[in-house]
Amino acid sequence: MVTTSTFLIINPNSSKSVTDNLEEILPVPPNTTLKFYTGPPNAPPEIDGPETSRQSTEACFPDLHDHYMDHDGFLVCCYSDHPLIYKLREITKKPVLGIFQASVTYAVTTSPSKFGILTSTSSWEPILDQAVKDFFGGVDVPLFTGTVASNINVLKLGDPKYFKKLVERAKICVDAGAKTILLGCAGLSGLEKKLEAEFEDVKFIDSVKFGSELLNTLVRFDKN
């Protein structure tokens, strides 16, 4: 008998346009139902660092705790080592995954190719550089070429008039030797193929899409 799993795709900011885009572009894994969550009105409209990450956790966690824990897996769609991931893990044994962790896991599988991160605003560059180092136990990662900000507001990343700028900023990663570029913001979801068309032999990874696939694997493994 085939069982169906349900995943909660969590947008921890209050901008429903981000959630709407994810709902439109995310493939649904086999035997899976995707449910989507947008942060409540008191969550920040975008997350640009530790303070807004904390605010989004404080806004989302009570709501999720009280009303949304009956799913088989949870994907937190903020590209960071977001504190909401760890708060949810305190109250469930079901898989809780962040899109940052998922995408870096993908990058490890492409070793020895170098990888970089393309993100939204410059405030994320030192934060994500440190997060990658922490992911590998606090050591420098020679295969990591660094984080490059597009300097485009999260809510405008999908606007076609900014695409040329995304390409220009991605080229910095490529020129540094990256063969894999992790899309370091949920607002970049759905742009991976369009970006790949601009470069030769460079793979762009949609962190939300891969996060959903990895979550599916974790849930199936736990059920077996």
Describe this structure in words.
The structure is a single chain. By secondary structure, this protein is of the alpha/beta class. It has two domains: 5-99 and 209-223, 3-Layer(aba) Sandwich (Rossmann fold); 100-207, Rossmann fold. 42% of the residues lie in helices and 20% in strands. It has eight helices and eight strands, in the order βαβαβαβαβαβαβαβα. It has helices at 16-25, 50-67, 83-89, 99-109, 124-135, 163-175, 192-196, 207-223, and strands at residues 5-11, 32-38, 73-76, 96-98, 114-119, 144-149, 178-184, 203-206. It has a four-stranded parallel β-sheet with strand order 2-1-3-4, with helices on both faces. α1 links the parallel β1 (5-11) and β2. α2 runs parallel beside α3 (83-89) and α4 crosses α8 (207-223). The longest helix is centred in the N-terminal third of the chain and has 18 residues, at 50-67. The mean pLDDT is 95. This is Protein DCG1. One of its GO terms (molecular function) is amino-acid racemase activity.
Outline the fold blueprint.
Blueprint: E1 5-11, H1 16-25, E2 32-38, H2 50-67, E3 73-76, H3 83-89, E4 96-98, H4 99-109, E5 114-119, H5 124-135, E6 144-149, H6 163-175, E7 178-184, H7 192-196, E8 203-206, H8 207-223
Parallel strand pairs: 1-2, 1-3, 3-4, 5-6, 5-7, 7-8
Helix pairs in contact: 2-3, 4-8
GO molecular function: amino-acid racemase activity
InterPro entries: Asp/Glu/hydantoin_racemase (IPR015942), Hydantoin_racemase-like (IPR052186), Iso_Racemase_Enz_sf (IPR053714)
Pfam families: Asp_Glu_race (PF01177)
